[in-house]
Amino acid sequence: MGGHGPATEWGVDNASDYKSKLGVIMFIFYVLVYAGFIAINVVKPKLMGAVVFAGLNLAVVYGFGLIVLAIIMGLIYNHLCTKKEDELNK
Q1: Mean pLDDT over all residues of the chain?
Q2: Distance CA 61, CA 69 (A)
Q3: Phi, psi angles (nearest 5°) of residue 42
């Protein structure tokens, strides 16, 4: 049977420690923001029904905010990791 080798050559990742630490820090930050969402739902669930923006209630705004935050954090993570990789792989 033929087969083929890897599609790309992978070398040493000099930025892996930086990326791991950054990932953990960003994960903890997101967990804290998400824990706020859960805490409101557990402690004062009626508060989630309060209209806060453009006729939308807090549950919808907070929920979409979590999604947008995750996307923004992903973009920031990618930017910072790419910058560090370029710096360390010169």
Answers
A1: 92
A2: 12
A3: -85, -45
